[in-house]
Design a protein that fits this description.
Growth Hormone, Chain: A; mainly alpha; about 0% strand
């Protein structure tokens, strides 16, 4: 009877674990609608071409908004990550961030052509909330995966996310952008049908994010008398971790590397559609088709490379992806026609997913179990602390040379430097550091 009880208990645990994995990956499915439709392909292009009405000026303004988001997230992510560990607020913070991102997405619909400040305000609010939600979402990865399958699970999340972005893009194309008469009686006057894709993002994000709040376990509640004390110790805990970071040498090198190469990714995602429209004269329909193809490539890459991640390790997977991304950016800069630009875009799509998935899983391997939220806060910090540099430099160089090709060339520099720093990371030592320091606590 005891053996049967143990077997039943293990089966129940596996069932809840699988349910948690499904709910976790579905959140990627939900929030990818935001990055695909708003950040990369549709709204960013609409902003530069219609709301601002000047692609060069619009590119510069969009870069400023991305800069502001990056700086804000860089400041907030380690602090709130530490607070989530101190006060067990991870799920609560994830919910609040998600709802603000949903509201901000819906409010983008209200910004009419010429209302630049209104559009940028709601974009910054929603984008900050989106990025902060990712901090707490990523922190669940070590909870639902083990060291043997963490690469695959992370890859599944990114792959499923790209499927979500792809389906959201299809829905936007079929219902809002392409038809002569858009759904729900929407008009094409003042780009109402294009602006309505933000409402699609809000609904998509809200509905498909619900399972993670239903099926993933709640954080352990603090006794009533200790909550204020936990909040007061947050800053102390953050400063303590900064001092202790020398004990995690491999994490330090990895985060430094990611601090650089992620700038390249942030810039590509923020300006890919803008570059296609401004340099190669892509129409909204072409940009959406471009987005569909890139999402297919990215989902395929994240799924396939997840197996390489578990076999070869996260470091090698990230390094291979960076070499491919650098090559693709160089091709995009030099491409004399749309055909070569399409090829570069597919390469970027295929390797951007694995880069992010393997970065997340590598961090998961390096994180001590008692500092998950806190360290993933620093993970987000490394992705945002200098993330303003890519968009900022792109905007400055574009403005100086009056050329988007010149502006996008700054991305190449970030990938090269990030790759050189990543070479110094020893994955085996990083895993041992996490195990040893975790046992010492």
């Amino acid at each position: 009877m005891e053996g049967q009880h143990i077997t039943a208990s293990l089966e129940t645990t596996k069932k809840y674990r699988n349910r948690g994995i499904a709910a976790w990956t579905l959140y990627d499915f939900a929030n990818s609608s935001y990055t695909t439709l708003i950040v990369t392909f549709i709204y960013s292009t609409f902003f530069t071409k219609v709301i601002v009405g000047d692609e060069i000026a619009g590119t510069v303004l969009w870069s400023r908004a991305v800069n502001l988001t990056a700086v804000t997230v860089a400041v907030l992510s380690p602090l709130l990550g530490t607070l989530a560990d101190q006060g067990n607020y991870r799920k609560r913070f994830l919910f609040i961030s998600t709802m603000i991102a949903v509201l901000g997405s819906a409010m983008l619909y209200t910004a009419l052509p010429g209302q630049v400040i209104k559009a940028l305000t709601w974009f910054v609010i929603s984008n900050i909330a989106f990025e902060m939600g990712s901090v707490f979402y990523n922190a669940y990865l070590p909870d639902i995966a083990d060291k043997k399958n963490i690469g695959r699970i992370s890859g599944y999340g990114w792959a499923f996310g790209y499927i979500g972005g792809l389906l959201a893009m299809f829905t936007a194309m079929i219902g809002f952008v392409n038809p002569d008469v858009p759904w729900f009686g929407l008009s094409k006057l003042n780009g109402e049908n294009i602006r309505a894709t933000n409402l699609l993002v809000a609904a998509w994000f809200f509905v498909f994010s619900l399972p993670i709040f239903i099926f993933l376990k709640n954080d352990q509640k603090n006794p009533a008398g200790t909550r204020h004390k936990k909040i007061k110790t947050t800053l102390y805990g953050l400063l303590k971790t900064l001092k202790e970071i020398r004990n995690y040498r491999q994490i330090s090198w990895f985060l430094l590397s990611r601090l650089i190469y992620n700038d390249g990714l942030v810039t590509i995602f923020a300006f890919g559609g803008i570059y296609a429209a401004g340099t190669f004269d892509f129409s909204f329909e072409e940009i959406m088709i471009f987005g569909v193809v890139l999402n297919i490539a990215a989902g395929t890459g994240a799924f396939i490379m997840g197996f390489f991640d578990d076999t070869l390790g996260g470091k090698k997977t990230v390094l291979v992806s960076l070499i491919a991304l650098a090559s693709a950016v160089l091709l995009a800069i030099l491409a004399p026609n749309k055909t070569l630009f399409w090829i570069s875009g597919v390469i970027v799509g295929f390797f951007s997913g694995p880069n992010q998935a393997a970065s997340r899983s590598l961090m998961g391997r390096f994180v001590p179990r008692n500092k998950i939220n806190e360290f993933f806060g620093f993970f987000a910090f490394s992705g945002k602390f200098t993330a303003f540099l890519g968009p900022l430099l792109l905007g400055i160089v574009t403005d100086i040379f009056k050329s988007q090709r010149a502006g996008i060339s700054v991305v190449l520099l970030f990938f090269v430097i990030g790759s050189l720093l990543l070479i110094k990371v020893d994955e085996k030592k990083g895993i041992e550091e996490a195990r040893r320091t975790g046992l010492q606590q």
